[in-house]
Specification:
The complex is a heterotrimer. Chain A is built from 9 helices and 4 strands. By secondary structure, chain A is mainly alpha-helical. Chain A has a 4-stranded antiparallel β-sheet. In chain B, helix 9 crosses helix 13. The N and C termini of chain B lie far apart (about 70 Å). By secondary structure, chain C is an all-alpha fold. In chain C, helix 5 runs antiparallel to helix 6, helix 7 packs antiparallel against helix 8 and helix 10 crosses helix 12. Classes of the chains: A mainly alpha, B alpha/beta, C mainly alpha. Chains A and C meet through helix 1, helix 3, helix 4, helix 7 and helix 9 of A and helix 2, helix 8, helix 9, helix 12 and helix 14 of C.
Chain lengths: ~300, ~350, ~350
């Protein structure tokens, strides 16, 4: 009796939701007909007629909207990927600093984390861009001939040049994410029992060597899930690129909506591309996790 | 199962009822009636363009676009204060009209074919309230003088605007390479330019002048002579709503016509008296709504011109207040003079 | 504690020496760090005293606080914010009288209808539409209402995900996973531009409420995910024993599952609240004049063009202040909750 009731309840709720959904879709259809917006994707093949500052693959304004979107997608991927590496690096450093026995370092790490975590990322990005990079005006911050140059035009490294928009987004994202990664790392390190520290110290290993060969391998299983979710957040947060003028997938979508008025189609494209980013990140982290688990077994 | 079937049919019925109601409700209702019923005009503005619409320290909006909104509110409702300003980004402005989020748009919007057409954005444009042209501003000390000098340079531009397309067209037709640095709104473009990210910034010339007037040393910056495009800026509404479109069109013409006839905020009631006392002043009587019933033909009260002029003044007064010599952002009137004074503003007759 | 004598200074001195200068490496490190810190502070001080002009902040203070709220009515949001601040301070530093502590929760709850009443008006106050809300008032409002609405939705989603009914379980987990995969700004974009298309003609929801709705949709998925951990950690034996006591399903959920899950997930829930407060700044990109939006609008005033550094620094400190208050309150709440937890474990 109870079971039947439950099944009925389930269908009931499901049908209510489906019909609510149906009503919404119906409204949408009515509105689309009424306003003459409609849904179609044929505009994707028309020329975009806007230029971009950065394109990893050849692009000109006479290329199609679809190609412009793909360039935006690649731009997003670029900043996500590099920022992922940079934030892991900074985050690990800060995470170690946070657990350091040197109290001043610990204090600075804690201060860094609270300041970064308690101001909005959007504001930080604007600050990095308009104050950090553009604030240099005509001064050049660092200039090592042909190797490294930081100015308001961006960063040049061995002939590779990164625009200031990209660099500001990269730094802003990485520093913001690193504060969260630091906490994940700290949690991982703290999850390793104190006995392990004492053990390697008594074996005469140096702090750094012990950390790398004893503590980190044991902390990794606890770190990976937290790291994965921070990476996913990083990918999502990269959409704030629009605030610093970097042409990522969201800002190109924004431009296209403005030109064509195709808000629904652009929204669908945006969602699909992010589901894709997510798949990439979570699957690769899954592989990393598997490698760690299996390498542990062989040990 | 029987219960289930009844239940499903109930839901389906309910759905049809809900949506059915919706379809019958909206048949042929003009937005104009809705505005009157609501007793309030919702006007989409930018909120971030000096001289056109920006937030004052007391929290009110100010500027040419804002005054145009006030003129509409005065004409439609009879009270220029019954108005809500909705700051909109460039990207959301057209969707906001289409979805009914705002009644009309007075947001520095360029009148173009694809925006006007039903295959494009499906808008309907009122007469142009400001004739602009896109220009380029550079630093005096840079020694840049024309478009050719800007080859291979970075240029700061607002994204998603006609500006962005125009600059691309200009450089493409001259076969010059350049790098566009795109920002979301004008003050970011200004920041990018001032901080030396770009060699030049491009925008409508009025906006360049407005921005420059706020700089510490306005004389260090020059606006190049190259005019990249015509930028006729006009209020807009939903293209399917002819009634609202007509009303808006004639409110703008009333502002221009009032200036032609020398009717101002201060003398409007004298003029009304004059018209009332002199039956032979036929055009004036029609214009002020004493004869002819012109207002009613476009869904407004017959004396809508009186209401508009008494609350915002004529076009010239609006211009002087926001962009005139003594305003914060002085821009010479140029093309925006009346046709009688060398400009191109002209109103069709009120007949 | 504040009684400083030579003895305590001496011990402090020794402590510092032990902490910072215990060996050569540490000493060098400490000196370098101190040098960098003082350089940074010196430069900041130099900028503050010489190169900055704070008129853009001082003349626009009411704008940052209340946005375009009518000037003669600004006492209303001001009252509300002072109430919130007062209760926060009372919660943290107030006397530990029992009757006060008991009624504090009530006071917190009352601030919400009070806030709505003061802002919307009616019943003797002139009505003001939500479109006119702005500045910090709007930021706080977005935060509070999104948090309030998303908590129950998140609980329902989390419970649905644990449900034994496959259809419900599947659909809620799809919702949670998809929501967590997409960027917040796209959900907010949906709320601002696309929701009107899903409503029947003639029905309008104001954009402030649409923003709250979008935040709720987004946040509830995260809350559900946080609660899942809490729900999973409750041992099955508890449910079995509750069953044997004759509690029905609703009672089990209400008295056993939800309170414990909430308590376990509390730290992550408070983090979500702080994150939400920060993320309301995204609405500036979508044209709402909340705190950051006001800042960006002020920068368009010809009087203040180009003074963005001051504006950003000022806004950052306001956000930081409020976040810190929230974080301290959260810690206070967590501490009170963990007392119960230790009691529980003792049993």
């Amino acid at each position: 009796m109870n079971k039947h009731r439950n099944i009925f309840l389930q269908y009931f709720i499901f049908i209510v939701f489906i019909s609510l959904f149906g009503i919404l879709i119906n409204n949408l259809a009515i509105n689309l007909i009424r306003t003459g917006i409609g849904i179609n994707f044929s505009w994707l093949l028309k020329p975009a007629s806007f230029a971009l500052a950065e394109y990893p693959l050849p692009y000109s304004a006479s290329d199609t909207y679809a190609w412009a979107l793909f360039i935006g997608w690649l731009n997003s991927l670029k900043v996500i990927f590099i920022s992922l590496i940079l934030s892991t690096f900074i985050g690990t450093l800060i995470g170690f600093a946070r657990t350091s026995t040197h109290s001043l370092i610990g204090l600075i790490a804690a201060g860094y984390i609270t300041i970064i975590r308690q101001t909005p990322l959007l504001l930080q990005l604007m600050f990095w861009y308009f104050v950090g990079f553009l604030g240099l005006k005509d001064n050049i911050l660092i200039h090592i001939e042909n190797i490294f140059k930081v100015s308001n035009q961006g960063i040049e490294l061995y002939g590779l040049s990164f625009s200031s928009e990209f660099s500001a987004l990269l730094f802003g994202l990485s520093i913001f994410t690193s504060a969260y990664i630091a906490e994940v790392i700290r949690g991982g390190i703290l999850s390793v029992s104190r006995g392990q520290w004492e053990a390697f110290r008594s074996l005469g290993l140096s702090e750094i060597k012990g950390l790398i060969s004893i503590i980190i391998p044991q902390a990794l299983p606890a770190i990976i899930p937290g790291l994965t979710s921070q990476y996913l957040n990083l990918a999502k947060n990269s959409t704030l690129a629009i605030a610093v003028g970097y042409s990522d997938i969201y800002s190109i979508n924004d431009t296209i909506i403005n030109q064509t008025g195709r808000a629904i189609e652009c929204f669908i494209i945006l969602l699909t591309s992010f589901l894709f980013f997510n798949l990439i990140i979570s699957n690769s982290m899954e592989i990393v996790n598997k490698i760690i688990v299996s390498s542990k077994k062989y040990n | 199962m029987k219960i289930m079937r009844r239940f499903v049919s109930g839901i389906v019925g309910l759905t049809m009822l809900l949506t059915g109601c919706a379809t019958t409700n909206q048949a042929n209702n003009s937005r104009l009636d809705l505005i009157k019923k609501r007793n309030e005009l919702i006007c989409g503005v930018s909120g971030k363009i000096p001289g056109f619409s920006f937030l004052e320290s007391d929290g009110s909006y100010k500027g040419l676009d804002v005054d145009i909104c006030k003129a509409f509110a005065a004409a439609f409702i009879g009270d220029a204060k019954k108005i809500q300003f909705r700051p909109l980004t460039a990207a959301e402005r057209f969707t906001a009209i289409k979805t009914g989020e705002i009644d009309l748009l007075s947001r520095n919007t360029t009148f173009t074919l694809s925006r006007d057409s039903s295959e494009g954005n499906g808008l309907s444009f009122a007469p142009v309230v400001f004739h602009d042209g896109q220009g380029l501003m550079v630093k005096q000390e840079s020694g840049l003088n024309n478009l050719e000098d800007l080859a291979n340079k970075s240029i700061c531009v607002g994204s998603g605007t006609t500006t962005e397309q125009n600059i691309n067209d200009a450089f493409e037709s001259a076969s010059l390479p350049y790098t566009p640095i795109k920002y979301q709104d004008l003050n970011q473009v200004v920041a990018g330019y001032l901080q030396g990210r770009c060699s030049a910034m491009t925008s409508d010339r009025s906006q360049l002048a407005a921005a420059r007037s706020g700089f510490k040393d306005p004389l260090d910056h020059i606006i190049l002579d190259d005019v990249l495009s015509k930028e006729p800026l006009a209020p807009a509404s939903d293209g399917q709503d002819q009634k609202l479109g007509d009303a808006m069109r004639w409110v703008i013409f009333a502002l221009i016509s009032a200036e032609e006839q020398g009717i101002t905020k201060s003398n409007i009631y004298e003029k009304v008296q004059l018209a009332k006392n002199n039956p032979e002043l036929k055009p004036l009587r029609r214009f002020l709504g004493i004869d002819g019933g012109l207002g009613e033909k476009i869904g407004l009260s017959n004396d809508f011109v009186v209401k508009v002029i008494s609350s915002t003044g004529n076009y010239g007064e609006i211009y002087e207040r926001n962009l005139g010599k003594n305003s914060e952002v002085p821009i010479p009137r140029g093309l925006n003079e009346l046709y009688t004074k060398g400009g191109i503003h002209i109103s069709p007759p009120f007949n | 504690m504040f009684n400083i004598n030579s003895d305590s200074i001496n011990t402090l001195f020794q402590k510092v020496r032990k902490l910072l200068f215990s060996n050569l490496f540490n000493t060098v490190l400490s000196l370098v760090i101190l040098l960098i810190i003082s350089l940074v502070f010196f430069n900041i001080y130099k900028w503050f005293s010489l190169n900055s002009s704070w008129e853009v902040v001082t003349t626009n203070l009411p704008l940052y606080a209340f946005g375009s709220f009518p000037t003669d009515q600004q006492w209303r949001p001001a009252t509300w914010m002072i109430c919130l601040l007062f209760i926060s301070l009372l919660t943290l530093f107030g006397p530990k009288w029992k009757w006060l502590r008991k009624n504090l929760l009530l006071a917190w709850i009352i601030t919400i209808p009070l806030g709505l009443y003061l802002l919307y008006g009616g019943f003797g106050l002139s009505p003001i539409m939500s479109r006119q809300w702005g500045g910090l008032t709007l930021t706080l409002l977005l935060t509070i209402f999104s948090a309030l609405l998303s908590l129950p939705l998140g609980i329902i989603l989390a419970l649905c995900r644990q449900s034994s009914l496959p259809l419900i379980q599947k659909s809620s987990s799809i919702y949670i996973d998809v929501m967590r995969a997409i960027p917040l700004i796209s959900v907010l974009f949906f709320g601002q531009l696309l929701i009107p298309l899903f409503l029947p003609v003639g029905i309008e929801i104001d954009r402030v409420w649409r923003a709250i709705f979008a935040f709720t949709l987004f946040l509830s998925a995260y809350i559900a995910e946080d609660l899942r951990g809490g729900l999973q950690s409750i041992p099955n034996t508890q449910i079995e024993s509750a069953n044997s006591l004759g509690l029905n399903q609703v009672q089990i959920i209400r008295f056993i599952l939800v309170p414990q899950a909430l308590r376990i997930a509390l730290p992550s829930l408070t983090n979500q609240a702080i994150g939400l407060f920060q993320n309301t700044s995204l609405m500036a990109i979508l044209g709402l004049v909340e705190l950051l939006g006001v800042g960006r609008s002020i920068l368009a005033n010809p009087e203040f063009i180009g003074q963005y550094i001051e504006v950003y620094v000022w806004l950052a400190s306001v956000y930081w202040m409020v976040c810190t208050i929230m974080a301290v309150l959260a810690r206070h709440l967590e501490q009170r909750m963990t007392i119960n937890k230790t009691n529980f474990q003792k049993l």
